[in-house]
What does this fold into?
Amino acid sequence: MFSFPRLLAVVLLPLLSINTSASKTNHLQGQTAAPAVRQGSKVEQLSEAKRLDEQVSKLFSESNFEQALKPAEQSLTLRKAALPADDPLVAESLFNMAMLYFRLGSYELAEPLFKESLDIREKKLPTDDLDLAKSLNSLAGLYQAMGDYGRAQDLFIRALDIRKKKLGLDNPVVATTMKNLGLNYKDRRDYKNAEELLLQTLNTF
It folds into this structure.
């Protein structure tokens, strides 16, 4: 997913999973549908989705992004079958798929998944939730990698505001988000704001 080394590489968390009968990747043009997954009760589906997410997380940490796509989509399919379409766990699964495509450099496939995940989180989570900040920061990173610095900046600012409020200024995640925004200012040739933010991160890194 992330193919911009300077920016924060969001960690793919091993949360439960998903479900989509032909899932999100079916609208990812040209992609073959994931093989059918074993059906069962809602509890069984969510348990299997969680197991698949743990597999995805392991593959992600090993940079095996291509291999992680199949279990990630199976997990998404299970969650969509077991849960309402706007459940936060579905949002997490959409986010996981988006991160994989982001790492693979498939920005056109990652963007709609990031946006759908963010839309659910904005509707269902508190305005200062850290998962919401994670979605904002990741979509910002995608736009930054695509050269859309204006949209990236707005999202980075929102992510930073949430993380500062919840984690405090001394937290490394806050410092990394601040660095992301500082680099965004630099790319927009706003050197004054870039310098101010980047200097604030020096004691953390």
In short: Confidence is low (pLDDT under 50) at residues 1-37. The first helix runs from residue 23 to 26. The radius of gyration is 17 Å.
